[in-house]
Amino acid sequence: xxxxxxxxxxxxxxxxxxxxxxxxxxxxxxxxxxxxxxxxxxxxxxxxxxxxxxxxxxxxxxxxxxxxxxxxxxxxxxxxxxxxxxxxxxxxxxxxxxxxxxxxxxxxxxxxxxxxxxxxxxxxxxxxxxxxxxxxxxxxxxxxxxxxxxxxxxxxxxxxxxxxxxxxxxxxxxxxxxxxxxxxxxxxxx
Length: 190
Known about the structure:
Number of helices: 7
Strand content: 5-15%
Low-confidence stretches: none
Strand order of the largest sheet: 2-1-3-4-5
Distance between the termini: 19 Å
Radius of gyration: 16 Å
Order of helices and strands: HHEEHEHEHHEH
């Protein structure tokens, strides 16, 4: 991925977040949104370790994780770093396993720790991800819940939104997990 770039205070904060996150991993029969957002949060922790903003994503189908992705925009060794948002990396990682096919992502669900931006939303729509589940909204940059009207107003995408009917919703997770998503995101901004 890259070189570890954490400051001492960030290491302590990240260790605390991972410890609290591990408590969610120990819940018996963990499933649904809690399970997938927890897994996406581990990816967000990986992003922070390498100096990126703490955003993670998990691509799943029929309750099985197909691929994971973490934000990698600061990784100078990644040729995709300029577009290496967590959601794009999850889709890229999955396509590396299967090769590209327009139907590979049909009926999949993308779980994200932070509401996707317009670039990621358009990519998921174009690649036909079936549903997007986000832990927390992104008031300034979110394009799935917060600014869906902007996405719908783009002439090139309006027909795709209507045609593929991508679903989107907030994850059904405890507030403590939402708070962890915010903390890891802000830790990556330090």
